[in-house]
């Protein structure tokens, strides 16, 4: 689904002493099928932005369009349930989306709510468990009697089970072990392509944004700071530094290799093996 | 026991009798002013260890000492005086209706003087850069801001043992580095023990020692430099090494390294030396 933000502002607790303007006059477009990363430091407005994508929050001014659904201040959105069926959101803290007595019921909640049959749910269940690498033996347990990373997996499984068209991920790998982080990101990437999803990923990992996204939006104090292709954005060291961000590890390494050793390698989504092969070819040593 | 401040002696634990053992015969000790990082796959038992250190849980077998006191239901209040813990999800630990009250709570509980209290609240919130949010509601902060406030709450009480259970997972990389430096400075100044549980491979670089958990057992106790050499076996238990270590490990057949570099800068320094000799 195409998504657009037109001059969107969001103010929390308006007209109170705690009034806080978290989004300021924000405009951008996301095309159907894009994989977009949203980055920015603590408090820049990322989670506020993504809560507009399924109508949990509404703009206080401006307009958000998600496919045919319109979110606008003072206007009731037609068929918000339909919107929530199509847009699956993995929240920043998994506890915020777990509430059923058992893990099985929790995962089934979304699909059931949107009218999937019991039979349909039972065919989806093993698939989503496998996608997040969660042991089926845990299904009868309370989702709160789990480790942090296991809870995260349940939260993701519940969203996948809805089979949404738009996947919204707010730091989905926080709390996962290194293997889990990689597997889960690869799984999202595969789904994105196989099912033609539109994916919006909030992440603090510049490496993941570079690796998976085809478009990046950088926020700073509720405003758009930069927007473009990752390969263009993530070499702009000074512009990133202005908003307390760093270039991805690999790009920083390549920059330093050039300035300190005169070894010039262009970033090309190398595997570490390929990268090291290039270094060996240029560093000398004759082996 | 003068220098070992935390001792786990043959500790085993399960959440219920009909459930599997979550910790199996775990023994380790932590010295005064040491920073120990605990790594391990999801469900390997890290948070359970943290909760046992703080008397939120008690071992089924074995004994635990924290600063010379055995952790039992009778001593739990003495233990919690000494231990400051930041949980994986900060929402679980907020008690105040404002950021300021929340940080004050732990101090009031410990009967800290009002004058000192005000000072500590200010200092600790300043060190995590949250002074602009004094009167905000903790539950209405951003994910990373919540973690900052939770950490301030622990810094303010100046405990003898600080346990951070993935306490910086929602921070941006710079924020993470900054906060760990702040906590580490405090550790050096005041001789506290620091236990940090993390999945961030770059965060362990500063630790004195690393304990790697696997399926409820201690798999390895070592120092970061040694750990980073074990790329393959770490991967087998769901872990990994940082980018710098990956590059290093693949260059070893070509470049002679004095020692395993911990940071990109150390790696580049060694590559520069090698390169200039060619
Ligand atoms: N419910 C709320 N009420 C009032 N202010 C809020 C609320 N939620 C967030 N804010 C404020 O809005 C700003 C943006 O918050 P948001 O959660 O969107 O940030 P974020 O970019 O997701 O940050 P993080 O990386 O820390 O998760 C912050 O300054 C935060 O304090
Ligand atoms: N309250 C509970 N009741 C029953 N079992 C639990 C409970 N909390 C945790 N467990 C189980 O104990 C094991 C260890 O959990 P623990 O939280 O210590 O893992 P962890 O190493 O902290 O993992 P993570 O990296 O995911 O946070 C897991 O298998 C988990 O399912
Ligand atoms: Mg957020
Ligand atoms: Mg844990």
UniProtKB/TrEMBL annotation, chain A:
Keyword field: ATP-binding, Cell membrane, Membrane, Nucleotide-binding, Translocase, Transport
EC number of this enzyme: 7.-.-.-
GO terms assigned for molecular function: ATP binding; ATP hydrolysis activity; ATPase-coupled transmembrane transporter activity; cobalt ion transmembrane transporter activity
Subcellular location: Cell membrane
Coiled-coil intervals, chain numbering: none
Subunit comment: Forms a stable energy-coupling factor (ECF) transporter complex composed of 2 membrane-embedded substrate-binding proteins (S component), 2 ATP-binding proteins (A component) and 2 transmembrane proteins (T component).
Name used for this protein in its record: Energy-coupling factor transporter ATP-binding protein EcfA2
Record domain ABC transporter: where: 3-246
Topology with respect to the bilayer: Peripheral membrane protein
Gene3D superfamilies the record matches: P-loop containing nucleotide triphosphate hydrolases (3.40.50.300)
SMART domains assigned: AAA (SM00382)
Pfam families listed in its UniProt record: ABC_tran
Record keyword Translocase present: yes
Family: Belongs to the ABC transporter superfamily. Energy-coupling factor EcfA family.
Family annotation (InterPro entries): AAA+_ATPase, ABC_transporter-like_ATP-bd, ABC_transporter-like_CS, ABC_transpr_CbiO/EcfA_su, ECF_ABC_transporter_ATP-bd, EcfA2, P-loop_NTPase
Protein function: ATP-binding (A) component of a common energy-coupling factor (ECF) ABC-transporter complex.
Keyword flag Cell membrane: yes
SUPFAM superfamilies the record matches: P-loop containing nucleoside triphosphate hydrolases
From TrEMBL, chain B:
GO cellular component, one term: ATP-binding cassette (ABC) transporter complex
Stored Pfam families: ABC_tran
Stored CDD domains: ABC_cobalt_CbiO_domain1
Entry-linked InterPro entries: AAA+_ATPase, ABC_transporter-like_ATP-bd, ABC_transporter-like_CS, ABC_transpr_CbiO/EcfA_su, ECF_ABC_transporter_ATP-bd, EcfA_1, P-loop_NTPase
Sorted UniProt keywords: ATP-binding, Cell membrane, Membrane, Nucleotide-binding, Translocase, Transport
Membrane-related topology note: Peripheral membrane protein
Compartment(s) where it occurs, according to its Swiss-Prot or TrEMBL record: Cell membrane
GO molecular function: ATP binding; ATP hydrolysis activity; ATPase-coupled transmembrane transporter activity; cobalt ion transmembrane transporter activity
ABC transporter domain segment(s): 6-240
Membrane among keywords: yes
Xref: NCBIfam families: ECF_ATPase_1 (TIGR04520), PRK13635.1 (NF010156), PRK13648.1 (NF010167)
Family assignment from sequence similarity: Belongs to the ABC transporter superfamily.
Entry protein name: Energy-coupling factor transport system ATP-binding protein
Organism listed in the record: Halolactibacillus halophilus
Lineage: Bacteria, Bacillati, Bacillota, Bacilli, Bacillales
